Structure formats: C-alpha cells, structure tokens
Amino acid sequence: MTSRHAVALAAAPSWALTSPPPKPPVSGLCKTGVFPENTASLALHERSGFRTVGCRERIGVHHGVWRDVTMIERRSAVTGT
C-alpha cells in the first residue's frame, strides 16, 4: 500500500471501511414541473397519482422563451404514515 492510499483510508469515516454509507431520509414526496401545453404528460402524471399544486410563472426557458410551468406532486401512501 502506498502512502497515498494510507492517507485516503485514514481520512475515510469508519463506516466506509465496514459497511455501506447511511441512506438519506425518504421524504415520501415526488415533485416535478411540466409545461401547461404538454397535456399528454399532465394526463400521464395524473394517471400515476400526481396532482397539480400550482403554476410557476415564467420560470422555465424553452428555445429562448420564458415559459410558465405547472407544478405537480405525488405523495407516498406509505412514507409518513
């Protein structure tokens, strides 16, 4: 082992040497934004359990033009219950 590897191992947290890293907490919330004209995507998301939560005005740029974005989300039925 070279000294470069020894330094890297010494700097690593103890869990990195014996187990996988801890997983971040799961929020149970999936959210995204879709251009309002994209009705096919909105319908697909709705069938998948997403709901519209609002509209952000002039937040997305598409081909150099500022556009509104419909904000949608889906909450987990399992997490947080």
Structural class, by secondary structure, is alpha+beta
Task: Give the number of DSSP strands.
Answer: 3
Run of helices and strands: HHEHEE
End-to-end Cα distance: 49 Å
Helix content: 25-40%
Low-confidence sequence ranges: none
The backbone outline, from C-alpha atoms, is extended
Task: Tell me about the largest β-sheet.
Answer: 3 strands, antiparallel
Radius of gyration: 22 Å
Compute the average pLDDT.
78
SS element count, helices = 3
Q: Work out the strand percent.
A: 35-45%
Strand order of the largest sheet: 1-3-2
Compact description:
Helices cover 28% and strands 36% of the residues. With 81 residues, it is an alpha+beta fold.
Architecture overview:
This protein has 3 helices and 3 strands, in the order ααβαββ. The protein has 81 residues and is α+β, with helices and mostly antiparallel strands. A hairpin with a 2-residue loop joins strand 2 and strand 3 (65-75). The protein is extended, with a radius of gyration of 22 Å. The termini are far apart.
